[in-house]
């Protein structure tokens, strides 16, 4: 039996955390199968430790390729320990970020190149790809303003505090991924109300996978 792997993507401040908080109970109330919520980098103890290392604002000397490799390492362990067993048990896995984040942030944002970053992730994922990706799109200035308003300065991580031009390159990377993967990635307007974003995502999932709903 094989479950469904659904990923949520978007620039910082797109509203993914708020979306998942509202979407999960809607899905749980109407799915026939168990829902597993998880996130990257993290989701299991080893990968949460790698997350701390990557996002620590004190780690200003971290090399861009080291950063890409750490995200891929956290991903591998998370897949093996949590995502693959859940999919094998027929669960629906809803994951906050996956490989597209590495392609957009390290590939486009850091300028390593999407194909180079894709190759280390092919090694990490060994063929596993999402069944569906919901990309929550926001203008970079809107996303950054949201996180600056919603979080205390000491709660901002090493990526949150990157420049506006870095975040614009990340968004451009995402928009390229949306264009190149029209079957897998559905773009949702993240500048609507939180409730409208939740409804739009629920509708896409229900339309795409009607058999897993009651
Ligand atoms: N659709 C929306 N309209 C207005 N504000 C929003 C919307 N979605 C989220 N927000 C607000 O924006 C801020 C960031 O939201 P949230 O933490 O959900 O984003 P995120 O995508 O998970 O961010 P990050 O990737 O940086 O963790 C929060 O203060 C949240 O209340
Ligand atoms: C998986 C992944 C994440 N990132 C960045 C994106 C965010 O700035 C942080 C994660 O924090 P969030 O609160 O979960 O959004 O890490 C990245 O650059 N590359 C990746 O592969």
UniProtKB/TrEMBL annotation:
GO biological process per UniProt: dTDP biosynthetic process; dTTP biosynthetic process; dUDP biosynthetic process
Gene3D superfamilies from the UniProt entry: P-loop containing nucleotide triphosphate hydrolases (3.40.50.300)
First and last residue of the signal peptide: none
Binding of ATP, residues: 10-17
GO molecular function: ATP binding; dTMP kinase activity
CC per GO annotation: cytosol
InterPro entries: P-loop_NTPase, Thymidylate_kin-like_dom, Thymidylate_kin_CS, Thymidylate_kinase
Pfam families per UniProt: Thymidylate_kin
Superkingdom per UniProt: Bacteria
Catalysed conversion reaction: dTMP + ATP = dTDP + ADP
The entry's keywords: ATP-binding, Kinase, Nucleotide biosynthesis, Nucleotide-binding, Transferase
Thymidylate kinase-like domain: residues covered: 8-199
EC number: 2.7.4.9
Record's function text: Phosphorylation of dTMP to form dTDP in both de novo and salvage pathways of dTTP synthesis.
Similarity section: Belongs to the thymidylate kinase family.
Name this protein carries in UniProt: Thymidylate kinase
